[in-house]
Amino acid sequence: MVDERWVFVIKVHDKPGALTAIASVFSSRGxxxxxxxxxxxxxxxxxxxxxxxxxxxxxxxxETLLRTLARLQQVVQVEAYPYTARELRSIxxxxxxxxxxxxxxxxxxxxxxxxxxxxxxxxxxxGATRAVDRxxxxxxxxxxxKDVVSAVMAV
Length: 155
Description:
Layout: E1 4-12, H1 18-28, E2 33-39, E3 49-57, H2 59-70, E4 75-82, E5 88-96, E6 110-116, E7 121-127, H3 129-142, E8 145-154
Antiparallel strand pairs: 1-3, 1-4, 2-3, 5-7, 5-8, 6-7
């Protein structure tokens, strides 16, 4: 069985312990979470919050995680997507060498310079999951990537 990359979009009751319960499901099954993104409908009564997780697992383990999460008291809904699904977008904030021109990155990746300083510049990358991954990998191969933070979101 081959590990594939998956994304879960989990709607939860915004209560203490929700993220801990979800993390425990992954941990107890030996699955490491690659990225995490959370959002809250702060100020809206009774509105669930959203947690988006990406991870690697076999199809079978993904189904086990999905069923187990759906049974948690804190979870309202779980949706599963293959990492390459069209409903998903990646965001990455990269810190690169100041002379990096951001040339030859995949056309599908939108870039926006956030800040520049003497020793680096910070750039926001957005686009399809695989395209943003290729862009980050390209920067790494060039030796200009100093740091990266990334997440996946459902649109």
